[in-house]
TrEMBL record, chains A, B:
InterPro entries: Cro/C1-type_HTH, HTH_LacI, Lambda_DNA-bd_dom_sf, Peripla_BP/Lac1_sug-bd_dom, Peripla_BP_I. This is LacI family transcriptional regulator. CDD domains: HTH_LacI. PROSITE patterns: HTH_CROC1 (PS50943), HTH_LACI_1 (PS00356), HTH_LACI_2 (PS50932). The lineage of its organism: Bacteria, Bacillati, Bacillota, Bacilli, Lactobacillales. It comes from Liquorilactobacillus uvarum DSM 19971. Residues 3-58 form the HTH lacI-type domain. SMART domains: HTH_LACI. One of its GO terms (molecular function) is transcription cis-regulatory region binding. It comes from the Bacteria. Coiled coil: none annotated.
Length: 337, 337
DNA sequence: CTGAAAGCGCTTACAG
DNA sequence: CTGAAAGCGCTTACAG
């Protein structure tokens, strides 16, 4: 086996307590000379701390757990980047587990495994937890927070306000003169979906426009949902603008629209929700209602670090509209207006 | 604190040894009745295993560590997916640490932290290790493997053969009739870069074409490198085809080419190296020399699981050309031919 | 089939 | 400033 503090203690002619102190920086009790000697010895002997032992005795660890829905979201990355960035500042490690959003069993296992370690906190990304998984989580006494998905159940989260997202995106297009506005690719049964629809409806009503259920297309925020949506709308869509509920949905719509012979934006304006880097990479670039995913990661991590376990903290993060090239004001040129 | 096996033992009127056995499935020694009783009790009392204690006593753990270069590669995801997929099958957890490729200090720390846990193995993604970091790693006695970057130093890896990549991509374009072929956006000082250049050169020479150093553009495989490359080639490029050393480079080149008024592929053919999903999403879709990143993750994980610590195993994974819409045979239409 | 006991490597009051 | 000792929660020969 490896070198232990016992080995070092023997060589240094001190007790293991002294070695432990010297090596973990609790130096107010040790003489500088001893410390130097021990540290040199540790290095020379190739000592490596046994984290398991430390965790066992201190009953805490320096790791943060992230549970991601296996459903590929292309915004998980900026969130995880934010988490890593903040975790690194505080000398914390990050464990990442995948849990299928639609696999309650795997979800449960993922949480269970995490809980069996004394992690400092748990970040749940884009995850819609089953009742039993949530119970397990909340009974663990480990602080946790949901990222990117809000709720109305007094469960801590950091997310965008999806009601506002629906509302602002719709208003933006209305402001461009559009009246026939679709809402595409969202999971209409999810909390997010319902909130966005509510905001969409509100904006329509305020502007005396009618919500047409057939202009809301159900989906799971995927590229294929975008393609399907546009195939369904067809080459002579009554709609002149669409709110895509993810960048991928927006891209699918744009690509399919072009395939159908439509021009984006003059025939069809698109605004996508999310605003990941993909929007800048494709042509035309996609106007987006941008969420600050990186910030979600940072704030979520900060919350867990400073968490006192009893404060149920939830926060909406501001979104902003980034104008790019996939939308334009409604003109005579639009197919139907 | 939480419930321990001691608490369960007391309630069940058995020894902690029995509880330990019953709970960890070493049941060949226990009576079924006792086992059932203990398991029921554990559940009822909300028992959760203390992983730190288990790791300490068994001197092993169920975690696999992944160290990723912080430099954003868009192929890290399929690799990590592959790792998770395989790890899940074997009931293993995955820790992910970021380490800057150009930050030796952070790299070193990342490895050190990982080594202080008794992880089952270490996967290094797209990482070019400094000498001291590598020393630390190799002295740890923990099995490790490099993914996506090969070497000629007897260090285990799973990667594509970059020499062949350069060779095949060049030959493919030559087969399309191109003679003025650029190689763009690669780190010419890296092992990967050198290998690709060597393959490129070889293909050119075999076809009696001259390698022009000014047609190789240096970079770090980024989108901006693609933009820059194309700005440098200008609107009347002598070259008629380019090998982009990543999908992002290829996309940058394509977008910039279009901005310059060139048509892709008739004015400029592009083949990109990597073949991530991005190639399917953009217009025109990008013909690619596709690497099987997912497979790298799976094979790397398998290797670590079955590893006997002494076998230095390295493997090249097959690549394939996926024809899409960003290239075409050289014709009179090409600006210069 | 089950229990007593040793021990994994470390930290931390406590005593000096 | 330093050491002896207890203990973190578990596993596993060993003995019965």
């Amino acid at each position: 086996m490896g070198v232990t503090i016992k080995d070092i203690a023997k060589r240094a002619n001190v007790s293991i307590a002294t070695v432990s102190r010297a090596l973990s920086g609790k130096n107010k009790f040790n003489s500088e000379k001893t410390i130097k000697k021990i540290q040199a010895l540790a290095k020379e002997m190739g000592y490596r701390k046994n984290t398991a032992a430390v965790e066992l005795v201190t009953r805490s660890s320096k790791v943060l757990a992230v549970i991601v829905s296996a459903t590929k979201t292309n915004f998980a990355n900026p969130i995880i980047d934010g988490i890593h960035e903040e975790a690194y500042k505080h000398d914390l490690n990050v464990i990442i587990s995948y849990a299928g959003e639609k696999e309650p069993q795997r979800q449960y296992e993922a949480i269970k495994t995490i809980i069996e370690r004394s992690v400092k906190g748990i970040l749940l990304l884009a995850l819609d937890l089953s009742e039993s998984s949530y119970k397990l989580l909340s009974e663990s006494e480990i602080p946790y927070i949901f990222l990117s998905i809000s709720n109305n159940r007094n469960i801590p989260f950091i997310a965008s306000n999806d009601y506002l997202i629906g509302y602002q995106a719709t208003n933006y297009l209305i402001g461009q003169g559009h009246k026939n506005i679709a809402l595409a690719g969202l999971d209409t049964n999810s909390y997010i979906g319902k909130q966005r629809i509510a905001g969409y409806r509100k904006a329509l009503i305020e502007n005396k426009l009618v919500l047409r259920p057939e202009w809301i297309t159900n989906g799971l925020f995927t590229y294929d949902d975008g393609l399907k949506t546009m195939k369904y709308f067809g080459k002579n869509p009554k709609i002149t603008a669409v709110i895509a509920c993810s960048d991928l949905v927006g891209l699918g719509i744009a690509n399919q629209a072009v395939s159908l012979g439509l021009h984006v934006p003059t025939d069809l304006s698109i605004i996508t929700i999310d605003g990941t880097n993909l929007c800048n990479l494709v042509r035309p670039t996609l106007t987006s209602l941008t969420q600050d995913f990186h910030q979600m990661g940072i704030l979520g991590t900060k919350y867990l670090i400073g968490n006192d376990k009893n404060t149920h903290y939830s926060k909406f993060i501001d979104v902003k509209i980034e104008k790019r090239k996939s939308d334009c004001p409604l003109t005579r040129n639009n197919k139907l207006s």
